[in-house]
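Let us practice reading a record.
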Amino acid sequence: MNCQSLISLHEFTAENGATAVVPGSQTRGAYPSKQDFAKEHIQLSCPPGSLLLFVGMIWHCSMPNNSAGERTSVLGQYLPKFVKPMEALDRSVRTDVLNAATPELRQLLGVDLRIPNCSRIRKPAMPKAAAPDILNMIFNLPVKGIPA
């Protein structure tokens, strides 16, 4: 449900802790173990000004910076209006600024999200056996422990 971007401001190398990903892991529908991530990850080396764009479900992390230099980037997160951002952006803004903020800024900061109220929608009963087939059809995701 989200897309993430990273614009490198410095060169990203294995030594300075370039972002690591496990290719194809977004299709697994499970969190990685430390052992699996360590065994399968690759680091995304790139020159300054590069754009990395990936779905948030891919296993990813920044790695330790073992160099004497900096490794900075600009991060972006793109998601539907009804999904609350991962970070509590409103906590990083002074109270007086929040109080004076326009409705648009308050929404961008996640303070006044327009989340659809789905509590009144009756959900049809779905047999448990059908759930994996529907997940596979919609997301092309195999469900761990259940054959696709």
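A brief commentary: The first strand starts at residue 3 and ends at 8.
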